[in-house]
């Protein structure tokens, strides 16, 4: 269904409502409300739980079910409740007519637990009560009117709003209290009117308190206060008054005042208001030489140039006060200014700068200088007194007030303060400058900054290098303060000092290995023969650099070792000396060449050369420098940066052990001889070799069998066999000799 709504005036609703009706397939009959619409009213100030009205639905005939009620729509904020058993509608929260004046509730009835409902519409009118006072949009306001406005002129319209309706919202205006008979107000429209002509001179402004009251019962009131802080009714002025001078027409000023000095304050009053009462000031005559300046706004009269009583002792100025009205009104006054005489002749020193000198260490009372000034004034004004103006060191001097003589008040010390700048002044204002120089005496000896210096320098420092700049201070001046430097101890020709600058320099190359430390004294002297000299002790530590090569004790070593020794047998210990210190002097040993097959090894720290394998004399008889397989070249390196090294050659002789027997060149010798060979003939020669050396290789030959009858002779050294007896073939055809080589 589409439902539309229309009010009593015939205006339709802005939109229609769509209602969907579901037809249930049931024979149940709902409880039907007695009325399809209920109308109730309740005042907006009703307390919570106030009974508004009761709805009633009747159950069908012969029904034993109980009817229950509930609000199903129209109360989104929960301001109402309904008794589910009796249908009594009550307030649940406070109501506000201004927020919602009509409430439409939809109430449903249900018969037991039946799914069939019936509904009714409950219209509740929230009746207005007078609970809102009239309210002005602003608490203050301001209007300006001219005093020429005629009576009856509207000058202001008051507006107040009341949220209530009907008589409760109908506002009436009034002027609170008997404030003035100048204004009236329309009670309905709030228009404020003039009742008579106003004059600014009598009263310039009015403050009205306007009340707004509604027509409720009881009525509520609001006040609009037009007070002096915010809103006023201001009466505009006309320029009908001339300024009048309030300041005196006579003033005095000293002739020695500075330019810009305030001489007089000219002041005039004008009772008019606004621009009509704003006064400016002007000099009309009497200031032809422009001696004065008048500020036209403040009326302050000041000097524009220096005044001189002797030139002009009186000024007569015609001054005008002018307002800013239209037309402008004015007043004039003759102001007399008397210039008073002063003692304006300043004493003048004969010299503006005095320069002199005085010796230090003199007793107090030493004459310094006499200053003198003159004053062109007469009488008491020309009598002069001298004094010293405060300044640095001024307390060390005294000035004779009458004569101007300056003497010392204390003994002076040039080293404490050498120059004094003293200002002397007579009793008025003239000053002179005195520059006093204190002459130096040689009363201080030079002093070194420290009594002992210790420095470290590298031994490879070049000759002529500066190692330290000594400095001694002498508080004296000039020649008395010139310091000369010298050395008084033996530096072994290694150091010298510049007599002027104090720079200590090397005079030869340093060698830590020769001398690692120097200790000597330096002296600072001035030209005095009376004061002691200042000395300081210098210790120079020479730091090592890696400038020495490790050096073997011998460049060529010879050593021997028996063959057949076990590995790690010590052969010889070598040593290389390095004169450097620390890492620069630490030596490490190694085999550089000649150690084929790693036959030998060397202890890198101790330099002990040992066998690494078993040796065989017969395989290699010697290790010599010339042949790669017969020599060892040893290397000694230090640990400096960069590292330095040297080499040495070791010739190792392997000593023979008799471990080899003689071997004949042939195991069997066959010799054929004729039986006619004469006795003494050389028959043959046997030969054997022995791999050993020396005596172990010397061979002796002997016949151990087969020469029983002595036919043969064997030379035991050469192995030569000779015939000793005549041979007879028929007797013996063959001889077998067993020869032994040993």
UniProtKB/TrEMBL annotation:
One of its GO terms (molecular function) is calcium ion binding. One of its GO terms (cellular component) is plasma membrane. Pfam families: Cadherin (PF00028). Residues 34-136, 137-245, 253-349, 350-448, 449-552, 553-664, 665-742 form the Cadherin domain. It is found in: Membrane. Its main location: membrane. The keyword Transmembrane applies. GO terms for biological process: homophilic cell adhesion via plasma membrane adhesion molecules. The keyword Chloroplast does not apply. InterPro entries: Cadherin-domain_protein, Cadherin-like_dom, Cadherin-like_sf, Cadherin_CS. Keywords: Calcium, Cell adhesion, Disulfide bond, EGF-like domain, Glycoprotein, Membrane, Repeat, Signal, Transmembrane, Transmembrane helix. This is PCD23 protein. The gene is Dchs2.
